[in-house]
Design a protein that fits this description.
α4 packs antiparallel against α8 and α6 packs across α7. The chain has nine helices and two strands; from the N terminus they run αααβαααααβα. It is mainly alpha-helical. A two-stranded parallel ribbon has the order 1-2. InterPro entries: CarbesteraseB, Type-B_Carboxylest/Lipase. Keywords: Glycoprotein. This is Carboxylesterase type B domain-containing protein. Pfam families: COesterase (PF00135).
Length: about 210
């Protein structure tokens, strides 16, 4: 109750100020520091007012969810939310590359104490950034986008599909239309429109 009272007494600006100071203006997340993923809010107290008292994946795995047809998927370049900050920041790219093993563990959810963590980080690096590939800055940025998309979206979606399909039909989608309206100017007003990153200016549906 005291926590709720405290939060309600603050303005949005006050709540975000520390977060903003840590990351910098216009930067929603720093993948070189630690990936901040979206996680479910599980009720601390299980009473008649509680909404979610267990992790959703645990509920689904145990067959406790409603067994109805499920539509699940993601956009092709979801990883832009994290790779975006690398577009105009060589420092963030350099930090990520210098601290590759730890950053990959954060990104893919590999326990840092896993005895195979270093080996797995090396394998992942070879997949997205093969040795002697000599990628241009633009191609490197696209590869980081794919890496974050796979690690933070498609990997988890694939797992959820494998679990849910045991109980009900699952219909997956992969939205890959490129171009069109963008929120870049809203999220990054300081960026020049001509230099705003985009995977393509051509509309394509795969």
């Amino acid at each position: 109750a005291k926590l709720v009272e405290c939060l309600r007494s603050k303005t949005v600006a006050e709540l975000l100020v520390n977060y903003r100071d840590e990351l910098g203006p216009g930067i929603p997340a720093r993948p070189d520091l630690k990936i901040q993923t979206l996680v479910p809010s599980i009720e601390a107290v299980n009473d008649e007012e509680a909404f979610l008292v267990e992790h959703p994946l645990k509920i689904v795995t145990e067959g406790g969810a409603h067994r109805v047809p499920t539509l699940i998927g993601a956009n092709a370049d979801e990883g832009l939310i994290f790779s975006m900050v690398m577009y105009n920041s060589d420092e963030i790219v350099e930090n990520y590359e210098k601290n590759w093993d730890n950053c990959i563990c954060w990104t893919f959810g590999i326990p840092v104490d896993n005895p195979k963590a270093t080996m797995l980080a090396g394998i992942i690096k070879e997949i997205y950034f093969p040795a002697n590939s000599n990628l241009t800055q633009e191609l490197k940025w696209e590869q980081f986008t794919r890496l974050f998309s796979d690690a933070l979206f498609f990997l988890h979606i694939s797992h959820c599909i494998s679990v849910q399909r045991q109980f009900s039909p699952v219909y997956s989608y992969y939205f890959s239309r490129r171009g069109g309206p963008s929120l870049i100017e809203v999220q990054y007003p300081a960026m020049n429109k001509d230099s705003s990153p985009t995977m393509s200016d051509k509309s394509v549906t795969e």
